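User: what does the whole thing look like in 3D?
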Amino acid sequence: MEELGRRGPSGLELTMAVHGLSSSSGSGGGGGGGGGGGCLMRDLDMNFPPAGEMEEEYPMGSVEDEDEGGGGGSRPKKLRLSKEQSRLLEESFRQNHTLNPKQKEALATRLKLRPRQVEVWFQNRRARTKLKQTEMECEYLKRCFGSLSEENRRLQREVEELRALRMAPPTVLSPHTREPMPASALTMCPRCERVTTASASGQRHHHVRPGAVFQRSPASPFQPRQPSAAC
DNA sequence: TTGGTCAATGAGCTCT
DNA sequence: AGAGCTCATTGACCAA
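Assistant: Here's the predicted 3D structure for the full assembly of 231 residues, as structure tokens:
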């Protein structure tokens, strides 16, 4: 027996369009499944097509050893596609992820396989592609989660700091009287973005010394921060 | 022996 | 109703 084409062609063609996470949509496929499997494949045995389809021979890929007898109800030998068969299937999969009946028939004839086998190959190939895609999406979302968690921690810290500031009494001293100023007297200089004590005329302002504890005035809302590029 | 791969199956769904 | 799909699963086969 010649075992060809180890490890199927893993050159899965993957495109990730994650932003909408438009993953598949699928058919909703509710749980389904159930048992499946079963060994009741007497009448649908791929390696031994039903009489009706025998008009053409289908030398099953690399399976040419019909251990006749085979005995009981065990599964037939597993078909392994030859390199050439896999190559051709991959090629047509690249062009189209689904086949219409005509294409299927033509491809099956060309590959000396049964149309059903071509169909199954395409189904499995689509499933593999989707699986790979899902894995990639998963990785991507994990990375997103990581950076968003970090951003979240940072913002939480900032909120805590600001909350603490709000609780503390203002200790900014007036440059004129040297008395503690009420928070309402503090504003944000729109040009240099520093906390200031506006003069009565509004013409001049004094920057508060660095490190001074202060309370922001309600009249000077926080500038929205540029969100750090998470994803 | 075990774990991965992949052809094949059956159930259940959607669409025409 | 039935063709064709997805999904979950099985089992043969292979390499480590």
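In plain terms: Confidence is low (pLDDT under 50) at residues 1-12, 17-73, 199-203, 208-225 of chain A. Chain A has three helices and three strands.
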